């Protein structure tokens, strides 16, 4: 252990000396930080919450209407209102660069090797590709009408872009940024969730209350789920979730006050969980043991035991928190964070004990909470991780 630590220190020192002598770009020494990043839409800021202390340690000014964040060697924030992507250090919480992209960037994703960032631009009907070594747009790809989301699939070999108005998913080959397929889905697709094993992409379609199942091996829609009519009336503007083992799909049904559990082999309903009114956003813990469900126009939070598919607890916080959004879990699954868009706060959940663990005041209209699960680099040089 001592020998390994000495070797690490030696390599870091050598790298920094080399960079200093050559006059090259600055290197950033970084250590993993237990922080939660919250995008505040109306105040154009990112609040950084210290996860162990439940307090804001930094408020970072970004572009107008930040709506999406993804993590590579840095944090990349899509600013819907200013047509930019902010590049923010995960160590110093400073904005290192501001990149001009298309009109109304709504979603962002980072390649597995962290060399490129992909941005869905809703009003210009295209996708921007940013090279992280110099934070420059190196390609702009025409996609469908009103792209909302972008997700990397098959170990980053392809980018899926969800297009709301053209009712399809554009498949872009990332080696040359060429469109190789357009996949027809249902009417007004809103959400796109990739199974952890990468085999299927699930698209929720608000227009006809359905879920399109896309097989990523050949980029084809292989099934449309209505689950015997049970999903008709699903409020698909919310979110669905896939279990960590990719074997089950959890679908909140707004009008039915239920969560339907669908097995992903034959795509049949195998369980039904009765919950409170207007279930909307659901997230499953990384260990697969718990799910947290938020409800539409109520103050209710539901804790679900996913091993037995039963409600463990249902909590009313006692104050109006209209606008609860999708929960974000810590890696160990013991805590979760929920942005409350109308109360300018983040609710901290003690998932292990099925109770509320606190509330943190943030900026105006928080819309996203996110935690970097990636291993952070200790030395970054020209956009690449050295150590």
Can you describe this structure in just a few lines?
It contains one helix and 34 strands.
How much of the sequence is in beta strands?
over 45%
Q: DSSP helix count?
A: 1
Q: Which residues sit in consecutive blocks of at least 5 with pLDDT less than 50? A: 16-32
Distance between the termini: 17 Å
Strand order of the largest sheet: 3-2-1-32
| Overall geometric form | globular
What characterizes the major β-sheet? 4 strands, antiparallel
Topology:
Layout: H1 2-22, E1 35-40, E2 45-50, E3 55-61, E4 66-71, E5 75-79, E6 84-88, E7 95-100, E8 105-110, E9 116-121, E10 126-131, E11 136-142, E12 147-153, E13 158-163, E14 168-173, E15 178-184, E16 189-194, E17 200-205, E18 210-215, E19 220-225, E20 241-242, E21 248-253, E22 258-263, E23 269-274, E24 279-284, E25 290-295, E26 300-305, E27 310-316, E28 328-329, E29 335-340, E30 345-350, E31 355-361, E32 366-370, E33 380-381, E34 384-385
Antiparallel strand pairs: 1-2, 1-32, 2-3, 4-5, 5-6, 6-7, 8-9, 9-10, 10-11, 12-13, 13-14, 14-15, 16-17, 17-18, 18-19, 20-21, 21-22, 22-23, 24-25, 25-26, 26-27, 28-29, 29-30, 30-31, 33-34
């Amino acid at each position: 252990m001592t020998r390994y630590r000495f070797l690490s220190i030696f390599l870091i020192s050598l790298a920094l000396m080399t960079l200093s002598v050559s006059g090259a770009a600055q290197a950033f020494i970084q250590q993993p930080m237990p922080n939660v990043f919250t995008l505040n839409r109306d105040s154009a800021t990112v609040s950084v919450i210290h996860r162990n202390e439940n307090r804001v340690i930094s408020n970072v000014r970004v572009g107008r209407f930040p709506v999406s964040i993804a993590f590579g060697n840095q944090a990349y924030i899509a600013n819907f209102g200013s047509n930019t992507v902010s590049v923010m250090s995960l160590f110093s919480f400073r904005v290192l660069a501001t990149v001009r992209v298309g009109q109304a960037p709504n979603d962002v994703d980072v390649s597995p090797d962290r060399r490129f960032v992909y941005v869905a631009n809703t009003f210009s009907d295209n996708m921007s590709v940013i090279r992280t070594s110099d934070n420059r747009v190196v390609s702009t790809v025409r996609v469908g009408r009103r792209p909302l989301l972008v997700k990397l699939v098959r170990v980053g070999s392809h980018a899926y872009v969800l297009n709301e108005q053209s009712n399809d998913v554009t498949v872009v080959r990332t080696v040359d940024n060429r469109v190789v397929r357009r996949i027809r889905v249902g009417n007004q697709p809103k959400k796109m969730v990739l199974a952890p094993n990468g085999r299927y992409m699930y698209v929720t379609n608000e227009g006809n209350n359905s879920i399109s199942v896309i097989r990523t091996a050949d980029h084809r829609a292989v099934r449309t789920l209505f689950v015997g009519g049970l999903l008709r009336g699903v409020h698909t503007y919310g979110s669905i979730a896939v279990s960590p083992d990719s074997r089950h799909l959890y679908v909140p049904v707004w009008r039915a006050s239920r969560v339907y559990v669908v097995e992903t082999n034959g795509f049949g309903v195998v369980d039904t969980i009765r919950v409170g009114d207007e279930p909307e956003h659901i997230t499953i813990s990384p260990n697969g043991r718990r799910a947290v469900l938020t409800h539409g126009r109520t103050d209710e939070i539901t804790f679900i035991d996913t091993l037995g598919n039963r409600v463990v607890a249902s909590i009313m916080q006692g104050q109006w928190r209209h606008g609860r959004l999708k929960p974000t879990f810590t890696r160990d699954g013991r805590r979760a964070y929920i942005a409350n868009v109308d109360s300018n706060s983040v609710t901290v959940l003690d998932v292990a004990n099925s109770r509320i663990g606190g509330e943190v005041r943030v900026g105006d209209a928080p819309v996203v909470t996110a935690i970097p699960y990636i291993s952070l680099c200790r030395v970054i040089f020209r956009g690449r991780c050295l150590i």
